[in-house]
Design a protein that fits this description.
single chain, mainly alpha, 6 helices, globular
């Protein structure tokens, strides 16, 4: 089977499984897992891409969580929010210079954006229930999505053979 058909089947089947799992067993936003899945491929795939994607995404999640925490604890005004996100945006670019992120700024930004998206979807930033906390939701969902990317690559390659 040609590569495009193999990847179509692999991603189609696993995409459906991802939706089912996030709707039943692991209640994390499916849009976050799909973003992480794309991040895996954008980082080059394979084990190296898996590691780079997860580390970059998690770096963005940490930066977003700190930016959002500053807004929540210090000042919720639009001006302070803009300043905080601006500082966080600069931090993302600087973080992508680190050896472990290997200069892939978009994957850092995806982690940041998905954390902000989780809070916009109603997951709180500060809560005693860690399973419902936006940062933890984003961390787990981005890892799950990257794993789906890795598995879809392996499955697609097996179908291609």
């Amino acid at each position: 089977m040609d590569k495009n058909t193999a990847m179509t089947l692999s991603i189609g089947i696993l995409g459906g499984i991802d939706v089912f799992i996030t709707a039943t067993i692991l209640p994390v936003p499916v849009w976050i897992t799909f973003t992480a899945w794309a991040s895996f491929f954008a980082c080059g795939g394979s084990r190296k891409g898996l590691l780079q994607s997860v580390l970059c995404n998690w770096t963005g999640i940490i930066i977003a969580s700190l930016s959002l925490l500053a807004i929540q604890l210090i000042n919720t005004s639009p001006l302070f929010a803009a300043i905080s996100v601006g500082i966080g945006s600069g931090a993302m670019v600087q973080a992508s210079r680190m050896n472990y992120t290997k200069g892939f700024t978009p994957a850092v930004v995806w982690g940041f954006s998905q954390t902000v998206g989780a809070t916009a979807a109603g997951f709180p930033l500060l809560t005693s229930d860690i399973t419902n906390q936006a940062t933890c939701i984003a961390i787990v969902a981005m890892l799950v999505g990257a794993i789906f990317g890795y598995v879809s690559e392996i499955f697609g390659s097996a179908l291609e053979a």
